[in-house]
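Give me C-alpha cells for this 44-residue protein.
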Amino acid sequence: MPVVGFSDDFVALTAVLSIWSKYMTPSIRARAERKLNKLFPFIK
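Here you go.
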C-alpha cells in the first residue's frame, strides 16, 4: 500500500503551505514570480 505512505507527506506539505501562505507578502510573491520567470521563461 504505497498510497498510505504518500498521504502523510501530503498532509504535512499542505499544513506547511497553509501556514507559510499567511506570512507571504505581495513583495515576496513578486520576487518569487520574477525568480521563477527567470528560471523558467517558457512557462507563463
